[in-house]
Amino acid sequence: MNSFDDLLAEASAADVTGWGFDWLAGRASEQRPPWGYAQLLAQRLDGVRAALDLDTGGGEVLGEAPRFPPLMCVTEAWPPNARKAQERLGPRGVEVIEVTPGTALPFADASFELVTSRHPVNPDWHEIHRVLRPGGHYFAQHVGPASAFELIEHFLGPLPRERQMREPQDEVAAAQAAGLTVTDLRTARCRMLFHDVGAVVWILRKCLWWVPDFSVHKYRAELLALDSQMRQGEPFVAHSTRHLIEARR
Length: 249
Known about the structure:
eight-stranded mixed β-sheet, Methyltransferase type 11 domain-containing protein, SAM-dependent_MTases_sf, Methyltransf_11, S-adenosylmethionine-dependent methyltransferase activity
């Protein structure tokens, strides 16, 4: 294993745009939920003529689908990701639209048979309902409560209030309040392993909302503690939470 400072420098310089995680190969791993979201997404896209993917990142997950409907649109708020999505999906005829968080979706009412998302930042259920056609479906994989909090709280300390956020049943209630009928809800808790401190630095740079004030300088002591543990052959263990949700207008 490289020195502590070399690991920090390497991870600090690595690209973190998009939603690919190949850089972590051999450094960290995460169990996947049992339902296989990408495959289920491809099946649903194959059965409609107009679909919208929200918070698409760099289009990595959507790009796994072998076929798109005649009208396929995606939205993304972070400019570097939007550019990656355009490069990946634009040549396949997908309309990539850069949006501003918290604003209405730039589509007419009842535009889509299917609205999808993998790990939306903050699903706007009223807007999802508005752009869906009657009988249309929302199909998504969401991040659940207290996801990766063992790692987050290593840096920030206990976060009891934040641990209560993203509860699946709260999202079901919000979706139904917006006029949608939830037809499926599944949950999973998946093991995460971090084998070197560079993997931790990289993931905290990529998921910058986990530790919003993160820097290798500010949290050097916490990183040194992790590095010492990992050099003794003990990976850092955390758990991600996910839920699959499907709703019909």
